[in-house]
What we know:
The complex is a heterodimer of chains A (457) and B (184).
Chain A: H1 4-16, E1 20-28, H2 38-53, H3 56-67, E2 71-78, H4 81-84, H5 90-107, E3 111-118, H6 125-140, E4 144-152, E5 156-158, H7 159-175, E6 187-191, E7 212-219, H8 221-234, H9 240-269, E8 273-277, H10 291-297, H11 307-325, H12 343-350, H13 356-362, E9 370-376, H14 381-398, E10 402-409, E11 417-419, E12 426-428, H15 440-443, E13 447-448
Parallel strand pairs in A: 1-2, 2-3, 3-4, 4-6, 7-8, 9-10
Antiparallel strand pairs in A: 1-7, 4-5, 5-13, 6-10, 11-12
Chain B: E1 2-11, H1 16-26, E2 30-39, E3 42-51, H2 57-68, E4 73-79, E5 93-100, H3 107-117, E6 121-129, E7 138-146, H4 152-165, E8 169-174, H5 176-182
Antiparallel strand pairs in B: 1-3, 1-4, 2-3, 5-7, 5-8, 6-7
Amino acid sequence: MLTQREILSTLEMLKNEHLDVRTVTLGVNLLDCASHDLGKLKKRIHTRISHFAGNLVSACNHIGEKFGIPVVNKRIAVSPIAAVGAAMSSTQLVDVARVLDEVAAEVDVDFIGGFTALVQKGTARGDMALMEAIPHALAETDRVCASVNVASTKAGINMDAVLLMGKAIKQAAHLTAKNDGIACAKLCVFANIPQDIPFMAGAYLGIGEGEAVINVGVSGPGVVRNAVDRALEADPGLDLGQISDLIKKTAYKVTRVGELIGREVADHLNIRFGVVDLSLAPTPNVGDSVGEIFQSLGLLSIGVPGTTAALALINDAVKKGGAFASSRVGGLSGAFIPVSEDLNISEAVRKGHIGLEKLEAITAVCSVGLDMIALPGDTTAETIAAIIADEMSIGVINNKTTATRLIPVPGKKAGDSAYFGGLLGQSTILPVNNGHNPNPFVRRGGLIPAPIQSLTN
Amino acid sequence: MSKAILSIVGQDRPGIVAAVSKVLFEQNCNIENVSQTTLQFVFAGIFIVSMPGDLPVESLHKNLNAEMAPLGLEVHITMLEPAADPVLPSQGEAYIITTKGPDRKGLVAGISEVIARFEGNITNLQAVFKGGDNPGDNIMIYEVDVPPRIDQQALNRELKKRANELKLDIDIQHRNIFEAIHRI
């Protein structure tokens, strides 16, 4: 017999606190679709994805209705296209991106990730072709997401690739100048990329992940924030240890939802269940914000002194609660701080409470990186590469994942507004320290060697 | 050995179960199963009792009454016949239906009619009607076993339609979500 409290608190979470399954992401292996013949490659990709993903959306909707919990996004992640299409030229790879876009639209998913290259130690021919294809691929498709892993703790940082990505980002922005450089919102540059992230733009199906898999991303920053508010109302004297405990318990509940829905969808589709990514992922909706949690904890805004400590507390509590809730936890699993996607964080930028430097600092204690950051349109490619290099170093030295999703908005400057729309939100453009100056450091290229802590054998 | 169902209803107070079980013990009866609820200060308890073969049920009733009436409690007793067609535990799925809305006559009747029409069995019902228009004050929670052959989508549609007519907000969810979130 369920208690009234259990039932009503669950309904409260669903109806008023934005508890939902943020994404169910189907991973599809395309490696055996590889061919020297572009036509064959495209056809095999199309057939393979249609086969697995045909019922994805209806299964998610059915399960969502059964439990009264909406599955907000249905997505696909494929094997790294740089491997699948290793024999292709960059023009041909843009064509492959179009096929991915088409099949994604046919099965009605909102994003398809996996236009990916892994170049942490060196760049092969296929990798280069993919990186060169990225700007056009992202500008000419709607649903395709790309990611490039340029660094890892074991390998070091591929600075040649970093510089290439700086240039690719500028070019992608230029090609979508009419939409504030939106192509860049579909591109992430990673250090230590996880093989099983369900979220975009970093989702891809890692090598060794099997034929097909269902990964789930839950979300509930609103649930966490409301739990904190309620507890503090009942007892304003709670200390940070007690609050950490509360966040941990709330993260447990949120993750349980993802686990249940993920397993049910996987069962229904007869596909292996992979992982729950227990990240707190915000949306631009009111009450669905990670930034608000900082305020509930007692900070004026995200960005003021105390922010890094608060985020460390939140990130850790979320991991602990989530880890107990599911034996299959993976992906990023922490707190996200995507600037434009979180109403509260983009407000904090607008008001000047948080800048690029503080954002970089706090990535040392959370699970993403510099995410959805709008930069002045005239920031040079070298500067962008340097920002990426900084973020990669944090990941490499600390043996964690970091990433950048930077958007230099053509024609706009610091203080202007950039508008990306939908879940991608909007944001004020952040100023960059000496963003126009040349950067001979970054131009040197080469490989920044793997740190001593990589010697774990 | 014969079995009887005993129901005790009346104003709640300390000592009710003690009084009932004292009489049952003195009459050589054994309590096999018992369930009690308190609603708005009223106690209601059902006891399944096995009686010695030579004890007439009227005599047990008389003894219980003598003990309980002074406490302001009513006693009903019936013999428990083995059911001709027992309602077996369903092989189907367990759903939780929650409604919220302004109070009015016919809410429980309206929702339970739809459930019955689809052969659902209500295994637990909690309802709080504080009256008035505040939806938070008038909540019904039905735990329902739905037989596997039933079209769940059709049931959900009809429930939503009825809820609409009754001006209720309705949620229909499989039981597992509540267990997953709240139970380890």
